[in-house]
From TrEMBL:
Biological processes annotated in GO: arginyl-tRNA aminoacylation; tRNA C3-cytosine methylation
Highest classification ranks of the organism: Eukaryota, Metazoa, Chordata, Craniata, Vertebrata
The organism of origin for this protein: Pongo abelii (Sumatran orangutan)
Name of the protein: DALRD3 isoform 4
Top-rank lineage group of the source organism: Eukaryota
A Pfam family: DALR_1
């Protein structure tokens, strides 16, 4: 994709993320010329999109290596040995992000049956906060020191990161944001 397209997606994502991360009862100040929008650090939509692109690059790299015969094809998930996940960062991703994600989704849109008419409270700020935390946890895990591995452990880790990617993509889709595949 062209850089202008990537910058366009990032610009829209940053503005949408800033707006959607504000609770509905809070006042939103969006001064685009000001430094009040955090485009650096770990609290922004840009950081979430950056980590989404990192995941896309990781899986694209695996696919290319597999096509070159450097790695075997990905085995069925049922044949993976998840006991090979020993790293604290792996368990953090699993228990703090992947497993609780369905519950988070059920809490983000609440139907209010007490008022007349149809009223739905959309808690988009919860999704934004969750995606930022997931991105921080993934970034910490991804930036750790590389270690030698066996294919079994590599596949289990790739499956874990597939789940992280799925959570990120679903969360971004809930916010109306497309995932980035390059950055």
């Amino acid at each position: 994709p062209a850089w202008t397209e990537i910058f366009g997606v990032l610009s829209v994502a940053t503005i949408k993320f800033e707006m959607l991360s504000t609770a509905p009862r809070s006042q939103l100040f969006l001064a685009l010329a000001d430094s009040s929008i955090s485009t650096k650090g770990t609290k922004s939509g840009t950081f979430v999109m950056y980590n989404c692109a990192r995941l896309a690059t990781l899986f694209e790299s695996y696919k290319c290596s597999m096509e070159q015969g450097l790695y075997p094809t990905f085995p069925p998930v049922s044949s993976l040995d998840f006991s090979l996940l020993h790293d604290e960062g792996e368990w953090l991703l699993l228990f703090n992000s992947i497993l609780p994600f369905p519950d988070l989704l059920s809490q983000t849109a609440v139907l209010d049956c007490t008022a007349p008419g149809l009223h739905i409270a959309a808690r988009t700020e919860m999704i934004c906060k969750f995606l930022v935390q997931l991105s921080m946890d993934f970034s910490s895990y991804y930036n750790r020191e590389a270690r030698p591995h066996l294919f079994g452990q590599m596949f289990v880790r790739l499956q874990l990161l597939r789940a992280v990617r799925e959570v990120l993509h679903t969360g971004l889709a809930m916010l109306g944001l497309p995932p980035l595949s390059h950055i």
